[in-house]
Records
---
Amino acid sequence: MSVNNCRTPFVIVNAFSDDSFGGNPAVIVFLPQSSQTSIDISSSALQKIAHSFNQPIVVFVAPPSPDADDGILNVRFFTPELEAPLCGHGLLAATKAICDGYMPGQKHIKDILKFRNMNGTVLSAGILLNGAGAATQGEWFELELQDNVVEEVSPDEKQRLTQIVGKALGKSDVVVKFIGQGVGALDRYVLIVLDEKETLDGAKVDTEALKGTFPRVVNILTRATPNSDTVFVSRMFAPLAGLPEDPVCGTAHCLLTPYWSTKTHQEGQDLRVKQVSPRGGDLLVRWEKERGIVKLRGKAIVTTSGNLHL
């Protein structure tokens, strides 16, 4: 990385929570247009920055390309180990940071922000002020992500994966009701539905054991919560991606929401759900089946701000 006197602002935002010690933290770094600086913003440089922050995700946001007239912001997502095409909580955190005025030159905030990711996909996010329903007053943020309907694994594979889950939870008699694999862009995600009597909140999980689910990388454990104000709870583990547990995972809900909406006959309705990691997070989700869209709503809070000197 070249050494120069360039300063670029960053903020840390906890997504899907309004608690300074809850939700999922994301670092948002606002980059200038490459034509306006001599800073090295190659992929390798961005990866080094993400590794140095050592947070679940670092989101790099840059102004629209000079030759584009669509107002779409450019966005890239990096874990400490690799670049990802999408991070739901990172996108929500970036929206919060922009709406709070941290992005230089972004003076007029629209209701809907659009971002273009590394694959050229346009992602939408926006702010809702007292617009998430009477029970969810205040400032909420909303994402629209592509849905993903899981495919059930074979009986032999279910047996193999159930044994791995039992080892991870320290229970040889764990009851697994369903295991499905994501398709397309999320084909390395696996959804593991536990019996509602199994405990997720506060459970100690041997994340090393979950490496055995390979070639799957993202392991989503979930169960129904019929006697509470939530429809389901979940936890997400991705040790093969350098992320033992993700405190609150947006993209996991692209699988969770269609599954549970179908299971509970609530397609097109808002579902209140929780991710019960140690930090925890609250979401309002909805599956718009005809559009092929999952809407995720959540709160966010800025905890840190500063400048990178690059």
Note: Confidence is low (pLDDT under 50) at residues 35-39.
---
Amino acid sequence: MTDTAGPTHHPEYYFEDGSIIFLVEDVSFNIHQSKLVQHSEFFKDMFLSKETGGGGEGQSDEHPIKIPDTLAVDFANLLWWLYTPQIISPDHQITLAVAYSILVLSHKYQFPLAFDFAAAALNGPRLNLPAVQRFDLARCRIVPQWLLPSIYGLLQTPFASLTSADARVLGPETLRVVGTAQGKIEGICKGLTSFKPELPHPHNLCFNKAACMHGLHICWARLGVIIHRPEHPVTLSEALQRIEAGGMPGLDCMSLACFRSLVDTIRPAFEGEAEMYNFYATAITKLKVF
């Protein structure tokens, strides 16, 4: 027996007083044309075109306006934003999946305020969109300004934590460059933490050589921990900032002269990591996938 059931009405976004009917997949939405025109240039142009062409499209369940290449759940997420009071902030208890859905569809259908809302939510500390997804959005020109930050995020994401789905999104060439870059950067970090720098201990400025050496030992041990930990490792640039600010354990044991000498000695080597990041970030942007 053939199933002849027609489209179902969306339980929340099929309003009795709606003025325009859309069919997305097999779900009907009856919503208010005025709200779409207010927020979307895409739908504003659509309605102007359909007024010119006529045909009664969108005025009944039998003749809806069909929205292709869009999931009903994503369209409902966009309507959630449209029908939610605009006083909501990006800190609203929205899920990552819903915010991502709103971002992509608001870009496609030109809802600038919805786009800004979703982008702010995904940029916030609560959702913290993973670097792989940020990279994909930037590469697709949905949020192009996320490109370089997302690449730096990829280079700092432990390679072993990337999933097969991540690999499919990145593609083999990007994955290869990311792996090569992380290997080079890890080599720099291991080289730096394997050998402690020498301190001058000037006689007229350093009055406790043993205390200075003890402080350096504590500092360097802590440095190895924070830059080699498997989850959320600190970059050398961040570590250098902590050292320069005196924010690492053991530095308070050192004389001012030895502390300044330490900073001057390690700065060029620590800044080499940033140069490596820049080199490989540029290499990724030049891949043919763009």
Note: Residues 169-285 form one domain.
---
Amino acid sequence: MDIQQLKVLTEVARTGSYTGAAQALGYTQSAVSYHMRRLQQAVGSAPVVRIGRRLQLTEVGHVLLRHADAIFSALRAADQEVASVVAHGGGLVRLVAFQSSCVTLLPQVVERLRVSQPEVRITVVQAEPVEARRLIRAGEADLGLLCNWENEELPEGEETMLRMELMTDRRFVVMREDHPFAGLRTVDLAELADSSWVMESFRDRFTAACTNLGFSPRVVATVDDALAIQALVASGLGITLMSEFALRCPSLPGLVRRPLRNWPLRRTYLLLWPDMVRVAAVAAVVRVVRATAGEFAAEDPGTAPGCPTGG
């Protein structure tokens, strides 16, 4: 087998068809068919099988794809490591991160790098963990700040990647200071069954938890901007859930936050291909992110300027 065949397999797996792979690679469909046929001959088994209208990986195909990802990662790392050496430790690091980290952790990371490592340049893309994971696997991002819940299994696709745990944070109920539950030390989700909610688009876990408790949440607003969510809560439209991470950013007056009982901790971690840690610029960013996250983990979010008071 060769690199070209693995590249074609990767696109066939991503698009689910020879036609889609050909379009993505700029090949003819016959060229894609040729490379896939040669790959099957080389390994002695079909890497894909047609199920309905899509091509899906066989067990052999999954093994090949996993190794292909690692090979392409090593090639990208070699290219960037050479570029970093030429730039005397500098270079570009493409980072993808979830929303609340973009307004809390990352600004401090960028500022520290600007002072201590001015030769390192950063670009940032905001994305939810599923999309961030895809970008890293595809080589469209070098480093990711991701999050998941402590009771979740290792997300698919991370088995061969390097995962660096940074910190955990709790979930809080955020409400007006005149809310009936504002005087409680903690709040259980079941106690909020009759509440109106201002929530983000990505709320599958919240909805499932409500269903398990026997109620359907009355979501009166769907907003993906933290400040807009707080403004609507402050207006009295409803209450919301926010992470400790998000509570470190400037918040509106008149709001209080209370820990949500019986809710799993959220884990924040760095995700990258193992080969990338040898790239000086990437290693520099990793060091600063870990140091900054360590300070965050040791800090009480309630002491952050502008956070909702009363907790």
Note: DSSP finds ten helices and 13 strands in the chain.
